[in-house]
Amino acid sequence: MRGLCSAPIAIVAFSLLAKQASAMRPAAIRTAGAYYLQESGAGAPLGKLNVPPQVMEGHCTTMVSPTYPQGDGVSRGPSTVVVRVVVWKSGSVYPMRVVSGDTSLEAQAMDAVRLWHYKPFLRDGDPIDVTTDIRVDFDPEKPGGVVTHPHH
């Protein structure tokens, strides 16, 4: 009897998980001749329009280089950390989460990206909040904390 009772519960739980998984699939959106993905679900920062990094690079007005950690006794070469962020209409960057890269550099990558600023992304002429990925390149030969204005 116990086995018969748990089977319906398992079927209901599986059905709910399947519905949740299908709700988290990205939906394609066509804007200005390009396709973007609308993220949703727990892994997506606030479900904003996902804009490719190559597009958002042209919107960046202020960048801060990351500080390479020194003195930890580990000899390292250049490395990259990818951070997924929401760029608000105001140009501010938050929240963020690391998507890939050296885990020992995550904090420094997010500290640098937190100071980046963007001009608004426009859709149909109106500024909107977007999600994008930012590549943070670490090089032990370059100083950290350097502020640049690439497209200002």
Average pLDDT number: 77
Q: What top-tier CATH class fits best?
A: Alpha Beta
- Rounded to the nearest angstrom, the distance between the terminal CA atoms is 71 Å
**Beta-strand content bin:** 25-35%
Topology summary:
Layout: H1 2-23, E1 27-31, E2 34-38, E3 49-50, H2 53-57, E4 60-64, E5 79-87, E6 93-100, H3 106-113, E7 117-118, E8 121-123, E9 126-128, E10 130-138, E11 147-148
Parallel strand pairs: 3-10
Antiparallel strand pairs: 1-2, 2-3, 4-7, 4-11, 5-6, 5-10, 8-9
Q: Can you walk through the features of this model?
A:
The longest helix is centred in the first third of the chain and has 22 residues, at 2-23. It is built from 3 helices and 11 strands. Mean pLDDT is 77; it is low at 1-45. The strands form 3 sheets. It has a 6-stranded mixed β-sheet. With 152 residues, the chain is an alpha+beta fold. 23% of the residues lie in helices and 35% in strands. The protein is elongated, with a radius of gyration of 20 Å.
In short:
With 152 residues, this protein is an alpha+beta fold.
Any descriptors?
alpha+beta, TolA/TonB C-terminal domain, 6-stranded mixed beta sheet, 23% helix, elongated, disordered N terminus
